[in-house]
Amino acid sequence: MAQKRTTKLISKPVSLNLFNFFMLMIIFFMASYPGEVKSQHAYININDPLMRKIPIAIPFFKALTGHEQEVTLGKNGVDIMSNALDFTGYLAVLDKASFIENPANKGITGADINYKNWTVIGAELLVTGGIVEQNGAVRLELRLFDTFKESLLIGKVYTGHKEDIKSMIYRFCAEISMLLTGKMGVFGSKLAFVSTVSGNKEIFTCDFDGGNINRITNFNNISITPALSPDGNFIAFTSYAKGNPDLYIRDLRTNRDVIIAKKGLNITPAWIPGQFALAATLSFTGDQDIYLISGAGEIKRQLTKASGTDLSPAFSPDGTRFAFVSKRSSTPQIYIGDIASGAATRLTFQGNYNTSPAWSPDGDKIAYVGVVKNSINIYVIGANGGGPTQLTSGQGDNEDPSWSPDGNLIAFSSTRQGASRIFVMTSTGSDQRLLFTYGGAQTDPMWSPVFVEK
Amino acid sequence: MGKQIVIRFMVVLFLSAMMLTVSCAKKSVETDPSAGIEQGSQDGLSAEEIARQRALEEERLREEALRKSLATEREKFEMEDIYFDFDSSELVPDARMLLKEKADFLTRNSGLTVTIEGHCDERGTTEYNLALGERRAMAAKRYLQDLGIAEFRLNTISYGEERPSIQGNDESAWSKNRRAHFVIR
After folding, report:
1. Which chain A residue's Cα is nearest to B87?
2. pLDDT of residue A383
3. Which of A319, A266, A264 is nearest to A286 (CA)?
4. Do A267 and B130 touch (CB under 8 A)?
């Protein structure tokens, strides 16, 4: 299922609209083992809590015609790649000080490499790069080697404008991710979040690694719970800009809003994977229920029927079911609803306060927030009830879990350093780290699908 | 000359006494205004004039007291929040008592409409607290309706945990933030 979805994302020319980007062309593909590229989890299982990070060496790129611009762009490119691969949580980028040979001088093809020089410093994987720059046009050659098998795993050549280097590198990182984990990874994905940096809660977006922060709303009021649409062109959120908690669906290309402003609550929007439709909680009838809403803001039908609070829908990757919070059994618990039949079954039974479900892109897990004795933490439970496992503990309040598009990471907000900040951890709870530092408090991280892929 | 100084002194004394009366009125409207007037009589004002001034002053104080009591009642109505238990929108006995007083005030002031704000403490999640805040506001609204207040006079809005009245992360702050707040529109 995940595989099918990934393929679909790749085939969409969404990135052209979103980033107003270039034509990125792959000139030739020279993987020596095309069969191996297809194989899933060839190297690592990202769901293994005892997973060991694979050491990878990323020496400086070779300036192929030798001029200064190529050296500068190459250095910048190596930094982007090192940070991106380090971010995955399953690769350990080696310190360049330990390198014995320098492909930037010696050469970047398999014939130029003395693999022993890399295995002796502990590198199991090696990336080499070569760059040609001419009047702003760039040609970037990237190769991934297995240093122990002494073989080329991936070889790619990208051409485009020099501003596109970041995207070229993310594409190559996605190839590495696909080879190692069977998934495209997080490269090119974005996060939406809420920040009080201006004094009020406003909606922002940033790149998957916390860079490139971009303010979306300017209401000087309370704006919360952002959700980026599957194609990245729309963002849904709740704002008190007109006094009441109304639901906004903003077209990011035109900055025009469709506003659902029914009496009462218009909250907790969630997009349905692969569709231009979402679900949200409305209370205009006097009862708080989840409704299906078209991307154009038309209320289609009611998805929850039981009386009492129903909110925070989160869809399964195939869009047929949704996790949600309901108080129908007197305490807030996670339920699974079936869109076609309308049936709902209770998922969580431990604890008396379980909220904020997030369905994993693989479809097999649901992350949520549990409150036990005033401690607010992130838990993961199997979509069919296995577990649950506690992922955070003893460090502040931890809320708002959101899966990365490859299911490898979970973003969340935490008060462990004082004001709320956005953190990232692996799906098993390891490698918990601050995503970025920014003014005010940051909450409500919501990870988008990958947009940069073609 | 000496008499003039005495008169001036008396006038100053009179004025300060008046100011005291006004500034004390917030705490108590019962302050006796006769003291200053009594002293004025020693300056040779006619008995008729004294009686007229006394009547005027009493009239003024009555009006002020009435205005003050209305304002105080209105202030009290807006200042007194009702409180809830954690993750609950049930009206506790204290909340019901306060709501009866509020219903009484709204019955006597039939022109007023009210917005009931539902609030939560910071524990629990932002999204769930939006729903809980609304349930708190709705619980207060339904109770006031049961006490005879027309529905069109009662609006509700939930602020979830977005607008705490007190900052802090202990029960003393939380218990003050789990509230319904009343605003006259």
Report:
1. A331
2. 96
3. A264
4. yes
Instruction: Give the residue from A252, A244, A180 showing the smallest Cα distance to A406.
Output: A180
Q: Whole-prediction pTM value?
A: 0.79
Residues A65 and A146 in one domain: yes
Pairing of strands A125-134, A62-63: parallel
Question: Between chains, do A311 and B130 touch, taking CB under 8 Å as contact?
Answer: yes
Whether A355 and B131 lie within 8 Å, measured CB to CB = no
- The residues spanned by each domain of chain B are 2-70, 80-184
Contact assignment for B130 to A356 by CB distance below 8 Å: no
Interface of A with B in 117-136 (CB under 8 A): none
> Is A354 in the B-facing interface, judged by CB distances under 8 Å?
no
Interface confidence: ipTM more than 0.90: no
A72 touches chain B (CB under 8 A): no
* Sheet (strand B154-160) strand order: B82-83, B179-184, B114-119, B154-160
What's the one-letter identity of residue A170?
Answer: Y
Q: CA-CA distances (angstroms) from residue B27 to B30, B68, B78? A: 9, 10, 19
CATH of the domain at A374: 2.120.10.30
**Cα–Cα distance for residue pair A340/A161, rounded to 1 Å:** 47
Regions of chain B where pLDDT drops below 70: 1-44
Chain A contact present for B124, CB below 8 A: yes
pLDDT at residue A171 is higher than 60 = yes
Residues of B in contact with A444 (CB under 8 A): 126
B125 vs A243, A283, A355: nearest CB? A355
Assess whether A140 and A194 both reside in one domain: no
Peptide bond into A361 cis (omega under 30): no
CB < 8 Å to A357, chain B: none
Find the CATH number of the domain harbouring A13: 3.40.50.10070
Cα A279 to Cα A269: distance, rounded to the nearest angstrom: 6
Q: What pLDDT is stored for residue A103 in this prediction?
A: 92
Domain count within chain A: 2
Would the CB atoms of B158 and A369 count as touching at under 8 Å? no
A165 and A237 both lie in a single domain: no
Per the CB < 8 Å rule, is A355 touching B128?
yes
What is the CATH number that goes with domain B80-184?
Answer: 3.30.1330.60
Of A181, A198, A226, which marks where a domain is finished? A181
On whether the CB atoms of residues A164 and A177 are closer than 8 A, the answer is no
Same domain, A284 and A374: yes
Looking at A135, A156, A181, the residue that finishes a domain is: A181
Residues A125 and A236 placed together within one structural domain of the fold: no
Give the residue numbers spanning the domain of A360.
Answer: 189-450
